[in-house]
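Appendix C: a fully annotated inverse folding record. The material below is reproduced so that readers can follow the format used throughout the book. The structure is listed first as tokens, followed by the designed sequence.
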């Protein structure tokens, strides 16, 4: 029976701007969500290691009909993926035990790390249930489209798709405004690592504040949004150029534009912990920016000088800060 695993991600550039029609860039990181389906004797089961298990049956369309109602929305992802497959003509019928595992996306203290666990698990589960239903997904694009639709269903129509794309394709990539994925190379001489801010932050409240700001913005706010979009475009253009110096200059401009928008909108992207990490990065000779929605989670330290990254890594270790070592991105979804 099928199984799959898919990586998490860090957003390098384009957070928030991607929700206003700009591109975003992300890199896949080596934490993986896992999904597996095995034949069940009797009712279907959803199994979440460490959380519990719940019984269900497939209805006539191939959607879960729960015998035991999962706690705290823990069945919502299975509902979303199964419904998306059913609408695509691949409803499930056979009894299955479906096991989902995102434990690697949590810190030792139990905090969610903000690395895109729901998107990675959506990709893994979509691959598994499509295979169980006999649906052929011959390439990455087909899986991306199905998983993106399922993830948007899970988020009530929200979500840019950058997390889903990173989980499918791996490596480093851009999500373009028309939801096309562009696989990118890694710029020569660009070094990075990610530093944990000390706490997780739920994405949706921050995104809602941004969307409210965008919908009711003043002319001055509109100018800030336009600057953010332009900085995202410039960063992608610099990235395609393939060398570190223009990328770092563009990312510094994007960070400044995002900070100005955050100050005007009151979203809460840059926290005191992020500002402390930014000061440490600057002292070591690195550029710092938040990654993703902010409010917590990880920030990125970048430089064209590996010695600067080394200094920052040592100081972060001395301060007891968890880090992710930079690279050009891990592989995308793996299907077994």
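Designed amino acids, in order:
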């Amino acid at each position: 029976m099928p199984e799959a695993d898919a990586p998490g991600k860090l957003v390098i550039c384009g957070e928030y701007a991607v929700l206003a029609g700009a591109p975003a860039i992300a890199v896949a990181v080596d934490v993986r969500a896992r999904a597996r389906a095995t034949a069940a004797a009797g009712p279907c089961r959803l199994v979440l290691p460490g959380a519990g298990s719940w019984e269900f049956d497939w209805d006539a369309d191939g959607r879960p009909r729960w015998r035991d109602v999962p706690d705290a929305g823990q069945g919502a992802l299975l509902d979303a993926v199964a419904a998306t497959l059913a609408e695509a003509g691949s409803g499930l019928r056979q009894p299955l035990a479906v096991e989902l595992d995102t434990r690697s996306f949590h810190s030792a203290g139990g905090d969610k790390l903000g690395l895109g666990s729901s998107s990675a698990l959506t990709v893994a589960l979509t691959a598994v249930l499509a295979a169980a239903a006999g649906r052929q997904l011959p390439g990455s694009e087909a899986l991306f489209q199905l998983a993106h639709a399922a993830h948007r269903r899970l988020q009530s129509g929200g979500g840019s798709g950058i997390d889903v794309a990173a989980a499918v394709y791996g490596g480093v990539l851009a999500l373009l405004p028309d939801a096309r994925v562009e696989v990118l190379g890694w710029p020569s001489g660009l070094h990075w690592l990610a530093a944990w801010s000390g706490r997780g932050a739920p994405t949706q409240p921050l995104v809602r504040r941004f969307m409210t700001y965008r919908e009711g913005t003043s002319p001055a706010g509109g100018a800030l949004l336009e600057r953010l979009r332009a900085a995202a475009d410039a960063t992608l253009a610099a990235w395609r150029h393939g060398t570190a110096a223009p990328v770092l200059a563009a990312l510094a401009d994007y960070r400044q534009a995002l900070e100005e928008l955050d100050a005007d909108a009151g979203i809460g992207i840059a926290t005191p912990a992020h500002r402390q990490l930014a000061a440490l990065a600057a002292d070591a000779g690195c550029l710092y920016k938040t990654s993703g929605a902010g409010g917590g989670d990880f920030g990125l330290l970048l430089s064209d000088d590996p010695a600067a990254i080394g200094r920052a890594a040592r100081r972060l270790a001395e301060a007891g800060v968890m880090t992710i070592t930079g690279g050009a991105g891990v592989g995308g979804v793996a299907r077994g």
